[in-house]
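TA notes. Do not distribute before section.
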Amino acid sequence: MSANSAEVPPRLEVVLVKAGRTKIRYPAELLRDDGERIVVRASWAGSGVRDFGFVRFEPGDVFTEYYWRGRWYAVKEVRAADGSVKGWYCDVTRPAVLAPFRSNADTAAGAKLVVEDLDLDLWRSADGREVRRLDEDEFAASGLAGTDPRAAAAAVAALDELESLALRPGGFAELLA
């Protein structure tokens, strides 16, 4: 399905898992799925305002989220309610899994996109002047390097790749095209 389709985009549920527990789940519209990359749009799912100091996520913000089945990250374009781009928030994750969703009655109720957060994040401001690696201390404290060294190495490589892309003149434009 393309973003320009006249059809109503199908709904799904994004489920972000961290350390084996659901961190957050929220509804989203499926914009595209080409077999490798899944693109969804969702409104800010947090309660109230989340002020990071360098950006505020707040009611009315819209996230266009890009997930990959073969990459260890997700890139989220963040727009304010007026449509202006705030920047890109990137999560280092295990590759995304899109699966059918079943309700308690075991009847089909859409799909769910499950993503396991590996603590590392990156922020790129809309003007590209600010690129920040985030939560490296949380990642170190998670113990992933000891329990799953392969995943830890993939996570660090993913953060390095995201930073390299973010520092380019076009930022994430080529990746998200």
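Switch to the second chain here.
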Amino acid sequence: MQHPEDQPQRTCIGCRKKGPRSELLRLVAEGNGSPVVVVDERRRMAGRGAWLHPSETCLALAIKRRAFGRALPGTTGTAAVERRITAGTQAVDTPVAAATTVQPESGSEN
């Protein structure tokens, strides 16, 4: 198992801090000269990539700094990245509801 300091380091285009590649999302321009930025979930898509922490703070900083256009020239559409980060953030922030049905222990049904 690799230690975090042994993993390749990447720089977030939002906060500009370095971190292990496993902690950041890889972003690429969608193929065929499209101006749309998509998340490369498997980190295998061809072409130039940019890296972003999966947080709304880093996303907001990247948009404010216009970092997407510099990191991936010619791109303008970031809706897919925004959806991915807000969906991931909601999943983390939303508490898991407790099970509403409780199964009785064996033999205590009656």
